[in-house]
């Protein structure tokens, strides 16, 4: 059989292929030749054939038939064969294939080989693809090589030990004696790998973390020598001595100094030296400075040092490199809550980033700008953000509009400014606002009694001839229906009143009804507004009757039903019309529960200590559920039902007709859902003297609904005694990380065929290291016995950052809902 072609010739031949089909044909032809050679047990060219096979594997072609040949090369006594064999094993084998166990004995022999390069090959392979079984069998040899005096082997053994610890954490203590002397090594390669090993051990074991904290002075000394050392050609990168080792040491110091005063105190000076002495003209220096900033912000550092770190990030914002600017904005966003005043000094630079062409930088700058808004700068920041809203890409408008709404609600200097700001948003980006923007603005206008005339006049002028912004048209229709008499009378004192007749007002509303741009919901607003004007206007009642009667035969079922019911008001129940259509009372703002009640001042003067009031037992506020629904989207979700109805001021007929509700005077069923959800009987189960649930819980298996980033949430199930259609779910939230999770809030939503009630949680802090849990009870009413589905939203603070996540739970056991 002729000698097979060399690897170089194969590469050159494949590169001459003009099409994918031609390349595939060459590969298939060569694979056939390699297979034939393998079948003939050709030891002479096995190494060459495996090398070619690895090249084809890197091109994406199947090469699994070469796995056993790799093992034969590993067993060979020639170093060239072993090198290709171990390389093939790392590329073609992994722990999912049983074949890899066959090489355990070969690796063990090679770890004890007399040649360091053969030992190095075995260490690399074990550290790359060793399974837990292989790691258990070979950990002793790795630990022995970790103590050797050979620097070449020690650095490879340290990295292999990292892999062993990841696979078999209980073997960690085996390497503890060997790691004590690693930091005394002069060789930078060994130093680097030893710091990686120490980092892995500290991250995986609190005991190791406490043990290695005494090494902080030694790490500080190594870092100081790196900074102060002169030019060393073998370690120099762009004028900086071994930046890779510096970054690794800074990361280890960050872990050791977290939540420890003594360790943090010991590293404050060296961090200040790194921050002030590192050259920033090159990217290498910026990488070290970034790690320094992260370490300063994560440990218990001095306030001056934290200001220095934020000023470094401020300088990053002026860098021409987009990646550095993005990193700076992301880091400032994480620190803005803890060091607000220091970040505020860079506000102008952050606002300038809103004009950046890069969309990633623009988004981070927008999020950080909203985090910087407070009562002192709200006018200036809103001016910049409204300008950004005018000019930004469509994908930013929804988030920007929501942010402006929240900031305006929180820090508005006056009600007029608040209303003007929201109207400006609706005028420029009305089509992008969230669904709750319309009811929220209506509530704001309703509660601002002295601004009614001004607001209705502004809204009337805003929609003249332009119905493209549907939320704006909806708010304007509602306000004209409520306060049309103020518009016609010209009682506006805040600005020059306009002269409008009743017919002109009705012309606008009729135009909204017939406009092609008007959505069905908008037409509903307009028709109800026209109906309300029948009690505010005097000269146009007959015209209103005519308009309402026309829509009694509309093809839109919603409009048709409204019109039929309104016609009934004009005829049979005319005596009730003034009371039913009277002006809406001042609406009470629903308050949120839990940690969101804490006043966030964004850097303003400290608030007085608030008297904390315990939340009503068994209540989870409806506003939290609505926030969750806005985020989850979809029309098949039903909101959380509170355990007690919200008290509202009584008014003559005021609650009989909600603007978007349906009037049912004859007692016949209506097709659209009523605006208020009927309170189911299961909500009062907790007040009963009977047990809330029966003892069949043992038959319903528990599930893990969420397990990510150290947070685990388990569901256990019980069935209600008083109502068989009620499932009682108890959630247990645990935290396996090394830091507590604070301000924990759990929210849930279910489809419309279910009804859901959240009771108060046992706490808002989940202790670290699984040392405690939070429990919370959910009741789900499932009258139709349908399969249970649930979407959950989790918010909490962890490691100084606000965390938020969504998940869908679909794996409920059948016993919980059947």
From TrEMBL:
<dbReference type="InterPro" id="IPR017107">
    <property type="entry name" value="AP1_complex_gsu"/>
</dbReference>
<dbReference type="InterPro" id="IPR008152">
    <property type="entry name" value="Clathrin_a/b/g-adaptin_app_Ig"/>
</dbReference>
<dbReference type="GO" id="GO:0030121">
    <property type="term" value="C:AP-1 adaptor complex"/>
</dbReference>
<keyword id="KW-0813">Transport</keyword>
<feature type="domain" description="GAE">
    <location>
        <begin position="698"/>
        <end position="813"/>
    </location>
</feature>
<dbReference type="InterPro" id="IPR002553">
    <property type="entry name" value="Clathrin/coatomer_adapt-like_N"/>
</dbReference>
<dbReference type="InterPro" id="IPR050840">
    <property type="entry name" value="Adaptor_Complx_Large_Subunit"/>
</dbReference>
<keyword id="KW-0653">Protein transport</keyword>
<keyword id="KW-0168">Coated pit</keyword>
<dbReference type="InterPro" id="IPR013041">
    <property type="entry name" value="Clathrin_app_Ig-like_sf"/>
</dbReference>
<dbReference type="GO" id="GO:0005905">
    <property type="term" value="C:clathrin-coated pit"/>
</dbReference>
<dbReference type="GO" id="GO:0016192">
    <property type="term" value="P:vesicle-mediated transport"/>
</dbReference>
<keyword id="KW-0333">Golgi apparatus</keyword>
<dbReference type="InterPro" id="IPR016024">
    <property type="entry name" value="ARM-type_fold"/>
</dbReference>
<dbReference type="InterPro" id="IPR008153">
    <property type="entry name" value="GAE_dom"/>
</dbReference>
<comment type="similarity">
    <text>Belongs to the adaptor complexes large subunit family.</text>
</comment>
<protein>
    <recommendedName>
        <fullName>AP-1 complex subunit gamma</fullName>
    </recommendedName>
</protein>
<dbReference type="GO" id="GO:0048471">
    <property type="term" value="C:perinuclear region of cytoplasm"/>
</dbReference>
<dbReference type="InterPro" id="IPR011989">
    <property type="entry name" value="ARM-like"/>
</dbReference>
<dbReference type="GO" id="GO:0006886">
    <property type="term" value="P:intracellular protein transport"/>
</dbReference>
<keyword id="KW-0963">Cytoplasm</keyword>
<feature type="region of interest" description="Disordered">
    <location>
        <begin position="605"/>
        <end position="624"/>
    </location>
</feature>
<dbReference type="Pfam" id="PF02883">
    <property type="entry name" value="Alpha_adaptinC2"/>
</dbReference>
<keyword id="KW-0472">Membrane</keyword>
<dbReference type="Pfam" id="PF01602">
    <property type="entry name" value="Adaptin_N"/>
</dbReference>
<keyword id="KW-0968">Cytoplasmic vesicle</keyword>
<comment type="function">
    <text>Subunit of clathrin-associated adaptor protein complex 1 that plays a role in protein sorting in the late-Golgi/trans-Golgi network (TGN) and/or endosomes. The AP complexes mediate both the recruitment of clathrin to membranes and the recognition of sorting signals within the cytosolic tails of transmembrane cargo molecules.</text>
</comment>
């Amino acid at each position: 059989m002729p000698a097979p072609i060399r690897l170089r010739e194969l590469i050159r031949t494949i590169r001459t292929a003009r099409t994918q089909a031609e390349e595939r044909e060459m590969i298939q032809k060569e694979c056939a030749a390699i297979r034939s050679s393998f079948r003939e047990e050709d030891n002479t060219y096995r190494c060459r054939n495996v090398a070619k096979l690895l090249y084809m594997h890197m091109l994406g072609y199947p090469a699994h038939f070469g796995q056993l040949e790799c093992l034969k090369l590993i067993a060979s006594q020639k170093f060239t064969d072993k090198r290709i064999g171990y390389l093939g094993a790392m590329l073609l084998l992994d722990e999912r294939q049983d074949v890899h166990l066959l090489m355990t004995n070969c690796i063990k022999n090679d770890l004890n080989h007399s040649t360091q390069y053969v030992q190095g090959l075995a260490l690399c392979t074990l550290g790359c693809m060793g399974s837990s079984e292989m790691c258990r069998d070979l950990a002793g040899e790795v630990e022995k090589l970790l103590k050797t005096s050979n620097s070449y082997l020690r650095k490879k053994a340290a990295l292999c030990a990292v892999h062993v610890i990841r696979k078999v954490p209980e073997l960690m203590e085996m390497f503890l004696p060997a790691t004590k002397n690693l930091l005394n090594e002069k060789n930078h390669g060994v130093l680097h790998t030893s710091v990686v090993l120490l980092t892995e051990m500290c991250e995986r074991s609190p005991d190791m973390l406490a043990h290695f904290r005494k090494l902080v002075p030694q790490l500080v000394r190594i870092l100081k020598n790196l900074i102060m050392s002169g030019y060393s050609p073998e370690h120099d990168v762009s004028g900086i001595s071994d930046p890779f080792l510096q970054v690794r040491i800074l990361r280890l110091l960050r872990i050791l100094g977290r939540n420890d005063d003594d360790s943090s105190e010991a590293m404050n000076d060296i961090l200040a030296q790194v921050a002030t002495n590192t050259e920033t003209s090159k990217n290498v220096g910026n990488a070290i400075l970034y790690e320094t900033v992260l370490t300063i912000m994560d440990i218990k550092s001095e306030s001056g040092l934290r200001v220095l770190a934020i000023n470094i990030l401020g300088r990053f914002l002026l860098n021409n490199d987009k990646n550095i600017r993005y990193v700076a904005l992301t880091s400032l966003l994480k620190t803005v809550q803890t060091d607000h005043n220091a970040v505020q000094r860079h506000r102008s630079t952050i606002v300038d980033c809103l004009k950046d062409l890069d969309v990633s930088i623009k988004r981070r700058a927008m999020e950080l700008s909203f985090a910087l808004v407070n009562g002192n700068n709200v006018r200036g920041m809103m001016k910049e953000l409204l300008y950004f809203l005018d000019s930004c890409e469509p994908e930013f408008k929804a988030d920007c509009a929501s942010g402006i709404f929240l900031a305006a609600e929180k820090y508005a200097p006056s009600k007029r400014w608040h209303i003007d700001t929201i109207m400006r948003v609706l005028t420029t980006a009305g089509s992008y606002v969230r669904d709750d923007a319309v009811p929220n603005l209506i509530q704001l206008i309703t509660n601002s009694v002295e601004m009614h005339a001004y607001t209705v006049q502004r809204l009337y002028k805003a929609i003249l001839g332009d119905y493209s912004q549907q939320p704006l048209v909806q708010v304007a229709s509602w306000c004209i229906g409520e306060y049309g008499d103020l518009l016609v009378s010209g009682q506006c004192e805040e600005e020059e009143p306009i002269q409008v007749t009743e017919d002109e007002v009705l012309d606008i509303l009729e135009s909204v009804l017939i406009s092609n741009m008007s959505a069905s919901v908008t037409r509903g607003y307009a028709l109800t507004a026209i109906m309300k004007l029948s009690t505010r206007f005097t000269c146009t009642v007959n015209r209103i009757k005519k308009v309402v009667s026309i829509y009694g035969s509309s093809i839109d079922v919603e409009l048709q039903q409204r019109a039929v019911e309104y016609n009934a008001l004009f005829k049979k129940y005319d005596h009730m019309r003034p009371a039913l259509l009277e002006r809406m009372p001042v609406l009470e703002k629903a308050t949120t529960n839990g940690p969101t009640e804490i006043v966030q001042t964004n850097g303003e003067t400290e608030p007085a200590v608030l008297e904390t009031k315990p939340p009503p037992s068994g209540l989870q506020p409806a506003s939290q559920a609505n926030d969750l629904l806005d985020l989850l989207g979809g029309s098949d979700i039903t909101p959380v039902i509170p355990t007690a109805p919200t008290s509202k001021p009584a008014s003559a007929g005021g609650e009989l007709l909600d603007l978007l509700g349906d009037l049912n005077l004859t007692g016949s069923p209506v097709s659209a859902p009523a605006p208020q959800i009927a309170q189911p009987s299961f909500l009062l189960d907790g007040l009963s003297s009977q047990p809330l649930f029966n003892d069949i819980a043992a038959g319903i298996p528990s599930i893990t609904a969420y397990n990510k980033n150290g947070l685990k949430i388990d569901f256990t199930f019980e069935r209600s005694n008083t109502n068989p259609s009620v499932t009682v779910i108890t959630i247990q939230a645990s935290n396996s990380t090394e830091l507590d999770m604070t301000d924990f809030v759990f929210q849930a939503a279910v489809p419309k065929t279910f009804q859901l009630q959240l009771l108060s949680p046992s706490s808002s802090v989940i202790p670290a290291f699984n040392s405690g849990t939070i429990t919370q009870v959910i009741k789900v009413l499932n009258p139709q016995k349908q399969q249970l589905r649930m979407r959950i939203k989790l918010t909490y603070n962890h490691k100084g950052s606000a965390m938020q996540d969504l998940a869908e739970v679909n794996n409920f056991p059948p016993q919980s809902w059947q």
